[in-house]
Amino acid sequence: MNTIKIAATIVLVALSIGTNYAFASFYNVKPMDLFTFVAGVLFGPLVGISVGIMSWSVYGVLNPYGFVPQIWIATMLSETLYGIIGGLLHRARFDFYKASLARGLFMANLGFLLTVAYDLLTTVAYASVFGIDFLAAFILGVPFTLVHEVSNALLFGACGIPLVSAARMILTSRRMED
């Protein structure tokens, strides 16, 4: 990785961790997911995966809601979904420069669906670790997962394209100055 990519990765990890602590009182509102996705879009799936893992490596251990190693590993691995899918859009050369209602709706739906997958994986881990029936864990978790899924749909839909577009412009202008 070049220095710009390393610096941008560090900034995205710091934003992920910082916003998770800043939003701790808003349970399950996590801009971290969007930042992990953006890392994948900007630099490919490996960097996206790295941002997700590094972010959860810190936040998961120093989690204000407590530390359970199995849940920490499950959330860390599930977070990589955002980086992987962002990286696939990077490879597909999805156009983030043209903001439109259709693209915003696409991003909102993508954020929602990725979060549904994340929440299902982490609910399975939770049920397994605590010996709870999956269906019971799923039903009990509905209020929490809905907040996570709807907030990510809103974050991805409203902020995804502008954030990627702005980051690409900054990275492009920085490269030109060097």
Would you write up a description of this structure?
It is a single chain. With 178 residues, the chain is an all-alpha fold. The protein has a single domain (3-177), classed as Arp2/3 complex 21 kDa subunit ARPC3. Helices cover 81% and strands 0% of the residues. The protein has six helices and no strands. Helix 2 (31-43) packs across helix 6 (134-177) and helix 3 (45-59) packs antiparallel against helix 4 (69-91). The chain is globular, with a radius of gyration of 16 Å. The two termini are 16 Å apart.
Task: Specify the number of helices.
Answer: 6
* Main beta sheet: none
How many E-type strands? Answer: 0
Low-confidence stretches: none
Helical residue percent?
over 70%
What's this, in brief?
The chain is an all-alpha fold and 178 residues long.
Helix and strand topology:
Layout: H1 3-22, H2 31-43, H3 45-59, H4 69-91, H5 101-130, H6 134-177
Keywords:
about 0% strand, about 180 residues, single chain, mainly alpha, Arp2/3 complex 21 kDa subunit ARPC3, globular, 6 helices
